[in-house]
Amino acid sequence: MNKHTILFLAANPAGTPHLALDQEARAIQAELERSGHRDQFDLVTRWAAQPLDLLRELRKLRPTIVHFSGHGGSESGIPRAGVRRDVGDVPGSSESQLRHGLFFQGPDGRPQLVTTEALEATFGAAGASVKLVVLSACYSEPQAEALLAHVDCVVGMGGSILDDAARNFAIGFYGGLGERESVAAAFLQGRAAISLEGLRDSDRPELKVRIGVDPKLLVLADLAASGTVANADRSHGTAPPGGRATHSNTPAHATRDVLLTRLMGLLPSQFDVVLFRAAIPPGYLSGGNASQTTRAVDAIRYLEQQDKLERLAQILDEVAGAGNATGGRNGSDPR
């Protein structure tokens, strides 16, 4: 069985308010262990995270979920009551107040701002495996929006959030994922967990979703078990008894990895034909100068959501057959 790796990056640099990040990681682990699908998730923690750790761990672990826990940038610098996850005045870093981002730990142990642009570039370069990001830091909504260029779902904070509230959100959220709930349902359960403890800030976590992705259908436990996002009779818009997703029986030639390899091996003209015939909305595909590999990952994600991987396999067979019939020449594209 494939497991989902959850990369937990924690940073509480010197000179910033102390956060109980170790308790948050422990709470997530304990909640996953209580869940019915605990064997499908593997929590990996990295403490005192420095900026380059993000890139290195994305390459090494290829996580499904990335969870950053720490401080986010605040331009106001207004003192706030309680332990919150914002940094308004970083000693020696007055320029950083004019920018938005997350504070990792620098080589000297002090805060080092990683800007929104740097985060987006990093996930674009090495985050192809990531389906979900949780930014458990104050004022992280701008970063959440930016990461949608590369990630299906991102949780960010629409303001300042108390340390206890952030921890309780994580308990409800990961407990839901571990019980095979959808990302949308787990998000609501995370918010509910804040309110159940009588804490404020239950409205601060915000779920951002990429165009073409339905978070109500994204069930990570199903992905780990079967390689696809499963949902009973999705073509008719109905759910199985109890509203839970069920596993689909995807043929070997139509598995995610096989199809991704085939897409990446196509000629550019063939690749464009496949995208057209698969009817993938342009807004779902990375634009600009995105590589064929990046666009192939985007296509697989979309078709996986729609339960159309078998149809993609059929299209690939037809396009490959047409290419062989023309001797591999780049002539007219088949319709």
Give a summary of the structure in a few sentences.
The chain has 335 residues and is α/β, with parallel strands linked by helices. Helices cover 39% and strands 14% of the residues. Helix 3 (116-126) runs parallel beside helix 4 (141-147) and helix 9 crosses helix 11 (309-325).
Any descriptors?
335 residues, alpha/beta, Rossmann fold, 2 domains, 4-stranded mixed beta sheet, 39% helix, disordered C terminus
Kindly describe this structure:
The protein is 39% helix and 14% strand. The protein is of the alpha/beta class. It has two domains: 4-222, Rossmann fold (3-Layer(aba) Sandwich); 250-325, no CATH class. The strands form two sheets. The chain has a six-stranded mixed sheet with strand order 2-1-3-8-9-10, sandwiched between helices. Strands 5-4-6-7 form a four-stranded mixed sheet. Strand 6 (101-105) and strand 7 form a beta hairpin. Helix 5 packs across helix 6 (183-196). The two termini are 39 Å apart. Residues 75-81, 89-97, 226-248 and 328-335 have low confidence and may be disordered.
